[in-house]
Design goal:
With 141 residues, this protein is mostly helical. It has one domain (3-140). The protein has 7 helices and no strands. The protein has helices at 3-22, 30-33, 36-42, 45-71, 79-102, 111-117, 121-140. α1 packs across α4 and α1 crosses α7. The relative contact order is 0.16.
């Protein structure tokens, strides 16, 4: 498996675990606490972490494929590449998040979250975050 994909999966998994914990905290913003019903529905933080990882790498692989055809690289190897890749990641993450909402990929458990945060931006930022952290990790290895 591609190291870039694996690291993105791990970051998405860990981020989801953190969101699970934060969704139960009274000091968390409302859009984060609105995720509580999603986490409660699945009961397993490991399972939701795996779902988050699979979701991120699915959109990431599509992003990498499109990037290969448009920019002639699949994985960013410079800040210039990263900038282009992040724009594409944001767009595809946004679209994917809207599809997750409209198609009820995770049932209705995220409806409260989407009613507060809206569909699109959260998915876009999640993918961009994973890509940035993965890039920084790989650039230090």
């Amino acid at each position: 498996m591609n190291t870039f994909i694996l690291i993105n999966f791990i970051i998405a998994f860990i981020s989801d675990l953190l969101l699970n914990v934060l969704s139960r905290q009274p000091f968390s913003p409302k859009y984060i606490t609105s995720l509580y019903s999603y986490f409660e529905h699945y009961k397993s933080p490991i399972l939701t972490g795996i779902y988050a990882g699979i979701t991120v790498i699915t959109v990431l692989i599509i992003t990498m494929t499109i990037s290969h055809y448009i920019f002639n690289f699949s994985t960013p190897s410079s800040y210039k590449d990263l900038y282009k890749f992040l724009i594409l990641s944001f767009i595809l993450g946004y679209i994917a998040d809207i599809l997750i909402f409209k198609l009820h990929i995770f049932g209705t458990t995220l409806d409260k979250f989407y009613s507060i945060a809206g569909a699109g931006f959260g998915g876009a930022i999640s993918l961009v975050f994973c890509v940035i952290v993965s890039y920084l990790i790989l650039s230090t290895l």
